Amino acid sequence: MYKLMEYENDLLDLFGSLNPCIRQVSIATYGESPRGTRKKPSLMYPPTIFKDLPKKDRRQHAPAALEYFSLGGDKTGQELGKWAKRCDFTKVRELHLQRLVLPDAISSLLHSNTRFPALRTLSLGTSANNLQMDEQTAAFIRTLPPLRTLNMTLGTGRLTFGAILDAHGSSLHSVSFGSSQSGFFWDYTHVADPATVRLLAKKCTNISYLDIMLPRFAGDEQDLGIYSALGSMPRLQELMLSLAFERDNANGPARGEYIEREELQGLEQRTVPASTSIEAESAAGPTQLRDHFDRGGLVTKTLVACALDDALARQIFRHIDQSKPKDNPRSLRLESLVVRTVGGRYCIDLNHCLDWIGRPRRVQRCIRDDSRDKLETSISLSNERWTQYKAMARQLHSPLTEMIDKIWPGYVGWTEREVCGLPLMSEDGTCV
What we know:
alpha/beta, eleven-stranded mixed β-sheet, 11 strands, 14% strand, F-box domain-containing protein, LRR_dom_sf
């Protein structure tokens, strides 16, 4: 059995014997397993991609000229400089570093003068709150040729965001700032206000696909400015929108306050562990949860803020589409919007409820030429996930059910509703 370092060094040695015909390589490196054992490299990777060379001659062999390189797993980027020495990156068109990349790893690339002259697609995982990492990432971004697709999987710092606009603004067609489930709202705050989104629209005039995380707004005219900013992108046709509810969001709605974990210390211990059965949860949970409902009403605020329905998704779609520049001949209409809610999670029973009432909605323009102004709304989930969410929602503790019935009276059978969500839009079109 191999420890992590022994395993990684052996795999690095094998890279010296890559078959010259290999063009695409994906690697996932992980830390020690709970049992402290690892499989041998020969069992984890097919030996057919390696040339049959003696180990002492492998490093002397010319590296394969790769076109696609993906490095994932818990240890992404920690040995990035070593990978660069084993591979020829001059022809790489897609580079995916999807998990956290450490500042030292980016620094090693910069100091080794590793360049990617053919790169067109980049996925990069960095932290927005680490100044050293932000500086190193910005410097790395500026060394790259004009990118067409960029995916920031974990966060975008202020310096990195400026480097993206300056070095790649005119070439980008697809940008993702908030697709990662593991990301937090404060990792995207530098791209989550109307002024910054308008700057993004001004610099990146060719964006057709955008994935971004924004704060959830109450719906007044001032707050809706961020949706107008999204509509100012003339070529934008596909939008993935994540609405976040975090306590540290100064621009967020009062009804969307994030449940502060510090205020809930001990609550998870007083409820049943996640490993117990649903029957045990139902027997132990109601009184404890009702005690929490009575102090502060934070659960009520979270339920209201995280709920999403068809009408709200359509309203967001129409507002962005109507904000499109009418005098720009290059302007294209918005074709598709997927909107979801994130945040406000702290215990398993409330999570099940939020998963159900905040299911992602897809709003798409009808593809028929005679019905281009009609919108089609659907749940952006597979049938398996839908069934799973529904089953979990039916097992909610009685306090949560009582709260839902109180917030939305008349929706006693809300878990049975197949298409329409909860009513979140008033008659004048503003958010409830």
